[in-house]
Amino acid sequence: MKTEVRILFRSDRIPEGPRALLDTVRCGSDVAELEEGAIFTIVTLDERDERLPRLLHLLTERGASWLERRYDCFTDEELESSRLLIMSYDFDATVFGGPRVGTTYDMSDACKRCGAGARQTSAMILEGEDLHKLEGRRAAATPYDDMLVDEKLANVLAESGATGISFRGVFAAFEKRGHIQLAWRQICATHTMPRMSPRSTGIFPYKPCPCGRSSFTREAEIPLRLAYRAADIADICDVNVTWEWFGEVNFNGDVNDSVLAAPYFLVTPKVWRIFQGAGVTGFDWIPIRVVDE
Ligand SMILES: [Zn+2]
After folding, report:
1. Ligand 1 centroid vs 188 CA: distance in angstroms?
2. Strand 124-127 with 165-174, pairing
3. What integer pLDDT is reported at residue 34 of this predicted model?
4. 255 Cα: distance to centroid of ligand 1 (angstroms)
5. Ligand 1 center to residue 176 CA distance, Å?
6. C-alpha triplet 16, 221, 40: angle, nearest 5°
7. Which of 73, 92, 114 is where one domain is finished?
8. Angle at the Cα of 91 (from 90 to 97), degrees rounded to 5?
9. Model confidence over 139-160: pLDDT tens digits?
10. How many structural domains comprise the chain?
11. Pair (27, 56) in one structural domain
């Protein structure tokens, strides 16, 4: 595993110009995205790279601020030997669907304040205008981490004997034409993990709800590392969701008009291998950590 740091700064805040600054710290096109006339310059370095502190020192000297994101990168061997992987889809590529498009939920066991624990009771309804985002893909996700696969991939998953998995239909909602069924399936998890270990990093409850279950969000500067105690992963399935719910919450009691948080989707390397075999792209796979406490 290595941890990468992505530094983003405004090109026009550098008196001598970004190229001259990057030359000073010997950051070439292998680590820097620097397009003529672009507003931002982006540099990606290993966190142990000696050029990183030098670059940040120069930016500080010039009074230029920057945004920083840290994330872990894994080899296939590391993914293969992990217990569970967080399955995370490129947010910009997500297909809008869920509560505000007509998908229905049973709220009887959900938190009355934040809606965490909402249980889906219908097929997954997607926004018709977003369908082009599925073109050329075999798997995708909604902003709520609802995982979607084409029918063929759904069949492979069903026949694989993967545990804890169930499937729902997927429909597109059009204002004039109503609902149209798609040749896609939603993968659903039947197993919810216990609470994660407090040794997890890269997340924090930014608008804590008294239920303690939402709404966690990511901390860009700290790599996302979910930790579970060994006893907590004794009963895992191949497909699971976290007990904690992540993301923005704006729940007003009416699920059709609410923004809900959602759990993370955790799968075993068995499921990862099936996605790899299908040539699926667009997902990040991040192993959980197993801790004593
Ligand atoms: Zn709550």
Report:
1. 22
2. parallel
3. 84
4. 14
5. 36
6. 30
7. 73
8. 120
9. 999 999 999 999 999 999 999 9
10. 2
11. yes
